[in-house]
Automatic annotation (TrEMBL):
A Gene Ontology cellular-component term: plasma membrane
PANTHER family referenced in this protein's UniProt entry, alphabetically: CALCIUM-SENSING RECEPTOR-RELATED, EXTRACELLULAR CALCIUM-SENSING RECEPTOR ISOFORM X2-RELATED
Keywords, in A-Z order: Cell membrane, G-protein coupled receptor, Glycoprotein, Membrane, Receptor, Signal, Transducer, Transmembrane, Transmembrane helix
Name under which the protein is recorded: Extracellular calcium-sensing receptor-like
Organism phylogeny: Eukaryota, Metazoa, Chordata, Craniata, Vertebrata
Length: 858
């Protein structure tokens, strides 16, 4: 029984998926069971040896998946030749030849190989895996009488293909070393116990891409993947890495396996940065439609699967793919590769159709008359030159170098196995493997522990079959010939501490659109300083509106999530970018303060002028009749009232605050006391004219002074108690207007403050009542009427003052109080003294006792 038949019997689960790829079938006849080939699938290159390894390479790549509806025989997959993958296969052949010629590695033994084409297609990869399990030829398969003719497999390129091939090889415990399958899903040792790889898994790649996106502040990116495990796991890993960063995913799309142009056009987005996890075969039709739409300026971020794909290096791709950046497999050095590739030509391999296809791809001509393609003939002796970069690019081998390392890993493992000393082996009873019958599982044991150095690089595998994670940062730039060159602009070293893995030379990068400046890809422009981000409802956190900070808050950096409060004595500037000291306000000598000062000075001057007039005419009737002594007392008190308003102007201090209210209350109490005394005298004078009334003896000059002193003393006592218990003090008011500090005088004791005002009000009311009672007394000059008017104005001013004072803060409260003092002082001055001055200065003929008493002869 061939190994193929054994695989079909032992691994029933795979039979279902391999129906269309079956290479043999069984038919019952009367003579027994006959095995006949249904389709031939011969290897591309074969070499015999003591130990045989297999190789699967995507020598072709599929552009469109065939329609598999299982109602008719499936057509062949439409594949195109890939010179780049053909170079990988030749690199494997070169490595085997070098090992066979080496006197130090596997001396006295040779390696053989069978290399198959997978067409970068999982189902074709299945077919290749089944074919490679048989002998060197399908129709001459050996019987299963000894160990497997295949010790290890070098392959596959795509992760989807590797998953299929690994599952087929798993029942036979044949180790598989992939040179280009990076899906993180393949690290699961329960599902893929025989899988190894010399390429880092995508956990490191997605970490590198996430760091790249964060580094260049690309917060709005699109994700495009192929319809396979590689793309699915890579996108999942990238989303996991982007959690906690500022990067948002604008959309996630998939290039359909059954390619559909309409669906592909829906994927094409105007997002500035697009990350693509796909193979070059899937990308080709997608990019073809993308270019047909003439969309440029997209910054592509490529995965290692296509970042060094030579199929896209043509000059026609540069306007659309120029500036692409991504992470490629770390390049190596293979000294004999260039010379070896040049030995492959149609003359040396006249019957190999792959070599003919190579010539057709490189030269556009056919070296064989049997070619079905309608292209010109050529000799097949043409020289392979450097411009044939798709095949001859050996200056920086990457995937080819991985294939090279994979072969050497098998050789070193086999070498260690063959050097095993009996009695010190790793297997049961410390035995070693039999050199004439080495089993694949025995080789896998040594493969897991192999460690060797090649071209200065250490190669080994961890417990999950992964290798050391290194990536080169690749940038697509225009070459001298107009084609795309892959320029190394950085390195990602997964062995370094977190945050130090990625090193990029920014100044060497050429971005999309042939720009030297980093492209911007954001959903919303950055919020400038002085504003904060407000996330839009139902949209990702990268989509936001910029809201200016409220007064008293600032943000001094871009994209602030919230604005911060300024300290207590600081406030935000107009731009809301910094905290500045709050403006300190008080009733200063500005326009308002100067105005009040001038009014106060004018009032004091008027008072002095009236005093001078009265003093000069002190012997005239009007001055003497109206009690000149009390008039001088009142003028003195009024002058102090005008001057005490000046104490309210200027920065409040401890002494000025105490002086403000006490000086105001005492001077006004003195003034009202004098007016009260005058009112009593007027009232008593007219009452004394009645027979038997001797009231004037109780209101002589001495008694008048006593009344004034007593009434004023009572106010002094209240003020003294106020100053002793809870005196007024300067305070900083930040509550009324948060943007300012208002310096004001706190009254200390509100009770004392209102007692002071209440006492003055009580004096004024008493004076008003008495004057009102005496308003109709006989005489041409009844001073009681003027006292009544003066007290009416006084009370009106201070009744209006109370609500105005309570509702006005800081300097305005001081201005209101100062204005009330001046207004009431002017009211008293003009009501009491203006009529007298008018008679004295302008009507001297009326300044007689007879006229004032109403006894002037008609």
């Amino acid at each position: 029984m061939s190994l193929l038949a054994l695989s079909l019997s032992l691994y029933t689960a795979n039979v279902i998926t391999l129906t269309y790829n079956s290479v043999s079938s069984f038919a019952s006849t009367s003579g027994g069971t006959i095995c006949t080939l249904q389709n031939s699938f011969e290897p591309s290159f074969v070499a015999q040896g003591d130990f045989v390894i297999g190789g699967i390479f995507p020598l072709h790549y599929n552009q469109e998946m065939p329609d598999l509806n299982c109602t008719y025989r499936p057509p062949p997959v439409n594949c195109r030749f890939d010179p780049r993958a053909f170079r990988w296969a030749q690199t494997m052949r070169l490595a085997v030849e070098e090992i066979n010629q080496s006197p130090e590695l596997l001396p006295n033994y040779t390696l053989g190989y069978k290399i198959f084409d997978s067409c970068a297609y999982p189902l074709t990869g299945q077919r290749a895996a089944l074919a490679v399990l048989n002998g060197l030829s399908e129709d001459e398969s050996p019987m299963c009488s000894s160990s497997s003719p295949l010790l290890a497999m070098i392959g596959e390129s795509g992760s989807a293909q590797s998953i299929v091939v690994s599952r087929i090889l798993q029942p036979f415990r044949i180790p598989m070393i992939s040179y280009f399958s990076s899906c993180a899903c393949l690290t699961d040792r329960r599902k893929y116990p025989t899988f190894f790889r010399v390429i880092p898994n995508d956990d490191y790649q997605v970490r590198a891409i996430a760091q790249l996106l964060v580094r260049f502040n690309w917060t709005w990116v699109g994700l495009v993947r192929g319809d396979h495990e590689y793309g699915r796991f890579a996108v999942q890993g990238l989303l996991r890495e982007l959690q906690g960063t500022k990067v948002c995913v604008a959309y996630q799309e998939m290039i359909p396996l059954l390619y559909n142009q309409q669906r592909a056009l829906e994927i094409i987005s105007l997002a500035k940065v697009v990350v693509v996890f796909s193979a070059e075969g899937e990308m080709t039709p997608f990019l073809r439609d993308y270019m047909a739409q003439n969309i440029t300026g997209i910054q592509w971020v490529a995965s290692e699967a296509w970042v060094t794909a030579s199929v896209f290096t043509g000059s026609e791709y540069y306007p659309y793919l120029g500036g692409t950046i991504g992470f490629g497999i770390r390049k190596g050095h293979i000294s004999r590769l260039s010379d070896y590739l040049q030995t492959v030509n149609p003359q040396k391999y006249p019957n190999n159709p792959l070599v003919q296809e190579l010539w057709e791809a490189l030269y556009g001509c056919s070296p064989s008359l049997s070619s079905a393609s309608q292209i010109p003939l050529c000799s097949g002796q043409e020289s392979l030159l450097e411009q044939h970069s798709a095949y001859m690019n050996t200056s920086s081998p990457r995937v080819a170098y991985n294939a090279y390392k994979a072969v050497y890993a098998v050789a070193h493992s086999l070498h260690n196995l063959l050097r095993c000393q009996p009695g010190s082996g790793p297997f049961e009873n410390r035995s070693c493997a039999q050199t004439n019958s080495v089993s694949p599982w025995q080789l896998q044991h040594y493969l897991q522990e192999v460690k060797f150095t090649i071209a200065g690089e250490e190669v080994n595998f961890d417990l999950k079959g992964d290798s050391i994670p290194y990536y080169d940062v690749i940038n697509w730039q225009r070459g001298t010939s107009g084609n795309i060159d892959f320029i190394n602009v950085g390195l990602f070293d997964g062995t370094k501490p977190a945050g130090d893995e990625l090193v990029i030379e920014d100044d060497r990068i050429m971005w999309a659109g042939h720009q030297s400046e980093v492209p911007v890809s954001v959903c919303s422009a950055s919020c400038p300083s002085g504003s904060r981000k407000a996330v839009r409802r139902g949209e990702p956190v990268c989509c936001f509106d910029c809201v200016p900070c409220d007064s008293g808050k600032i943000s001094n950096e871009t994209n602030s999530i919230e604005c911060t409060f300024c300290p207590e004595n600081f406030w935000s500037n107009e731009d809301r970018t910094s905290c500045i000291p709050k403006k300190v306000e008080f009733l200063a000598y500005d326009s308002l303060g100067i105005t009040l000062t001038v009014i106060s000075a004018v009032g004091a001057c008027f008072t002095i002028a009236v005093f001078a007039v009265f003093f000069h005419h002190r012997n005239t009737a009007i001055v003497r009749v109206n009690n000149s002594e009390l008039s001088f007392f009142i003028l003195f008190a009024l002058m102090l009232c005008f001057l005490c308003s000046l104490v309210f102007i200027g920065e409040p201090t401890v002494w000025s605050c105490m002086l403000r209210h006490t000086a105001f209350s005492i001077t006004f109490s003195l003034c009202i006391s004098c007016i009260l005394g005058k009112t009593l005298v007027v009232l008593a004078a007219f009452t004394a004219t009645r027979p038997g009334n001797n009231i004037m003896k109780w209101l002589g000059p001495k008694q008048q002074r006593t009344i004034i002193f007593s009434c004023t003393l009572f106010q002094v006592v209240i003020c003294a108690a106020w100053l002793i218990d809870a005196p007024p003090y300067p305070s900083r008011n930040t509550k009324y207007e948060r943007s300012k500090i208002i310096l004001e005088c706190s009254v200390g004791s509100s009770l004392a403050f209102w007692c002071v005002l209440g006492y003055i009000g009580l004096q004024a009311c008493l004076c008003f009542v008495l004057a009102f009672l005496a308003r109709k007394l006989p005489g041409n000059f009844n001073e009681a009427k003027f006292i009544t008017f003066s007290m009416l104005i006084f009370c009106a001013v201070w009744l209006a003052f109370i609500p105005a004072y309570i509702s006005s803060p800081g300097n305005y409260a001081d201005a209101v109080e100062s204005f009330a003092i001046l207004a009431s002082s002017f009211g008293l001055l003009f009501c009491l003294f203006a009529p007298k001055c008018y008679i004295i200065l302008l009507k001297p003929e009326k300044n007689t006792k007879q006229h004032l008493m109403g006894k002037e002869k008609k």
